[in-house]
Write a structure and sequence with these properties.
The chain is mainly α. It has a single domain, classed as Four Helix Bundle (Hemerythrin (Met), subunit A) (Up-down Bundle). The chain is 70% helix and 0% strand. The chain is built from eight helices and no strands. Helix 2 runs parallel beside helix 5. The longest helix is centred in the N-terminal third of the chain and has 29 residues. It is globular, with a radius of gyration of 18 Å. The protein starts with a helix and ends in a 10-residue tail after the last helix. 29% of the residues are buried. The model has no long low-confidence stretch (mean pLDDT 94).
Length: 228
């Protein structure tokens, strides 16, 4: 009883802190709470991530334990530490710029575009959920555990890194959901950073995860079917 209870507490405390920080990054730059795009985005994301956390705390607590290890400090590979630090900075900028944009009135996106952005976010979170259901070893850092095997089912049949595919849907949805055209520019370096991460990750997995080299030969695409 003690360990699951402790894990739930750590997971939800960390989630609560993250959601508070997320709200601060959205609303403080706008210097207003009258930002319906920000509230809708925050609500969609909060509901999705809270439900996913609760679901896997019940069905696969080992996955949650692995996901709690995240960020530059948790990475073992030096390159991944750099990649994670860069990705964290760009992600914060993705959240901050729309508030500044709104405050100064630079962008004017329709409600339909904003809702489309939230739909991309929901779709990205759904794909990440499917990845978690298929792969209990989907850690927050690049590592290989004892007895870990290559996953070739579910979304892994289509692309080798479906979690990053879902993350990109989510990230490209942020500027639209928060009503900022200028924010789309930040999606370009974020996409490049994710590609850098997965290329380095594949080199690590090819050496350390038995069967991964063969999997690369049978599943051709990394992120987007028929493109990359």
């Amino acid at each position: 009883m003690g360990r699951p209870s402790s894990l739930s507490r750590r997971a939800f405390e960390g989630l609560a802190q993250f959601l508070v920080a997320l709200a601060a990054f959205i609303f403080l730059p706008a210097w207003s709470l009258r930002f319906w795009q920000g509230w809708l985005f925050w609500g969609v994301f909060s509901i999705a991530v809270t439900w996913i956390t609760a679901y896997f705390l019940k069905r696969d607590p080992a996955l949650i334990e692995r996901r709690l290890k995240a960020g530059p400090g948790a990475e073992k590979e030096k390159t991944q530490k750099v990649v994670q630090a860069l990705a964290s900075l760009i992600f914060v900028a993705l959240l901050v710029l729309p508030g500044i944009d709104r405050r100064h009135g630079w962008s004017h996106l329709s409600a339909a575009v904003v809702l489309a952005g939230d739909a991309l976010i929901a779709l990205g979170m759904l794909l990440v959920f499917r990845v978690f259901r298929e792969n209990s070893y989907a850690s927050g850092v690049v590592e290989v555990e004892r007895k870990q095997r290559v996953i070739t089912t579910g979304p892994y049949r289509i692309v080798r890194h479906p979690m990053y595919s879902g993350s990109l849907l989510f990230l490209w949805g942020i500027p639209l959901a928060l009503g900022s055209l200028w924010d789309l520019l930040l999606c370009l370096p974020m996409t490049a950073t994710i590609v850098w991460r997965l290329v380095q990750e594949e080199k690590y997995l090819a050496v350390n995860l038995p069967g991964y080299a063969d999997y690369r030969n049978t599943t051709r695409y990394r992120l987007i079917p028929r493109i990359f």
